[in-house]
Design a protein that fits this description.
Its main location: membrane. Pfam families: TRAM_LAG1_CLN8 (PF03798). Belongs to the TRAM family. This is Translocation associated membrane protein 2. With 357 residues, this protein is mostly helical. It has 2 domains: 212 residues, no CATH class; 86 residues. It is 61% helix and 6% strand. A hairpin with a 4-residue loop joins strand 1 and strand 2. Helix 8 runs antiparallel to helix 9.
Length: 357
């Protein structure tokens, strides 16, 4: 974070300088944009970075509502919130995770996984609360038909579009963080798979955030105490239910809802892709992604159980080492004092007289 005390200095704009000060650099850029709001000449450009663009006033029965379209200017807004996310990432890392990890004395591999889970716990918890608020306030929970009615949904409410922009900003910021956090080369393919899973189908259900939050919270408790695996059992139960819920929601909205809409034409300019071929491609993509996740889950669970039973069987095969009988040491009656054996009453025992031959 900004204004931290450094015990070691690096050459200006060197690789180590950028890695150790990337949050401070992002803070300076964000501060420049915020200062631009204070002047009339630069205020219009500053708002381009901060607020969603392409607002449209749509008349309703009572008044007018403001909705938002999408376009290339949204990339500028996403870039601004990428720097915001980098700053928040550094704050959580330095003031929360680093202080906890120092007390746990973790190895290098566990320390890296602890930092990863700690960051994702904060993100998924925030996403769960925010997503639940959007679902309730926008009426998606009380009226599920709004998911496919009035398609194509090219005009979004403010909080829906802002939620999408922040989600994209977070997962795009994770790409340079692989370099800033010095992630090992062996871990990069797994991290890229995880990031792309959220970037390709980037509209994720609320239950998926809840499942991921439970998983990474279980990892944090496991790193603190390796005997604590109760949350993993709860996550395993929720994981399968989540996969089934996502498949059901996709089939309901795409397979049945959009299939009954009258407007079934391919018109990319208006954002209309409601054709049989497009619906089948999306359903196959969703089913393939959920099947792949379920296969990885089952494979990891079987491997975990196999390792557990192998460990238990090796413990049973190891014979118990027989205990050696304690050697009896015959001691003289009484106690020793200054090298002389004393009797129980404190007097020296009488020595036996040897008979002369």
């Amino acid at each position: 974070m900004a204004f931290r005390r450094r015990t070691k200095s690096y050459p200006l704009f060197s690789q180590e300088f950028v890695i150790h000060n990337h949050a401070d650099i992002g803070f300076c850029l964000v501060l420049c944009v915020l200062i631009g709001l204070m002047f009339e000449v630069t205020a219009k450009t500053a708002f381009l970075f901060i607020l969603p663009q392409y607002n449209i006033s749509m008349p309703t029965a009572d008044s007018e509502t403001v909705h938002y379209h999408y376009g290339p200017k949204d990339l500028v807004t996403i870039l601004f919130y990428i720097f915001i996310t980098i700053i928040l990432h550094a704050v959580v890392q330095e003031y929360i995770l680093d202080k906890i990890s120092k007390r746990l004395h973790l190895s290098k591999v566990k320390h890296s996984k602890f930092n990863e889970s700690g960051q994702l716990v904060v993100f998924h918890l925030t996403s769960v609360i925010w997503c639940f608020y959007v679902v309730v306030t926008e009426g998606y929970l009380t009226n599920p038909r709004s998911l496919w009615e009035d398609y194509p949904h090219v005009h979004l409410p403010f909080q829906v579009k802002f939620f999408y922009l922040c989600q994209l900003a977070y997962w795009l910021h994770a790409l340079p963080e692989l370099y800033f956090q010095k992630v090992r080369k062996e871990e990069i393919p797994r991290q890229l798979q995880y990031i792309c899973l959220y970037l390709v189908p980037w509209s994720q259900p609320d239950c998926l955030y809840s499942t991921e939050f439970l998983f990474h919270m279980a990892r944090l408790f496991y790193f603190a105490d390796e005997n604590n695996e109760k949350l993993f059992s709860a996550w395993a139960a929720v994981f399968g239910v989540t996969r089934l819920f996502i498949l059901t929601l996709a089939v309901l909205a795409i397979g049945f809802g959009l299939a009954r809409m009258e407007n079934q034409a391919f018109d990319p300019e208006k954002g209309n892709f409601n054709t049989l071929f497009c619906r089948l491609c999306v359903l196959l993509l969703v089913c393939a992604a959920q099947a792949w996740l379920m296969w990885r889950f089952i494979h990891s669970q079987l491997r975990h159980w196999r390792e557990y039973w192998n460990e238990q069987s090796t413990k049973r095969r190891v014979p118990a080492t027989p205990r050696l009988p304690a050697r009896l040491i015959k001691r003289e009656s009484g106690y020793h004092e200054n090298g002389v054996v004393k009797a129980e009453n404190g007097t020296s025992p009488r020595t036996k007289k040897l008979k002369s031959p």
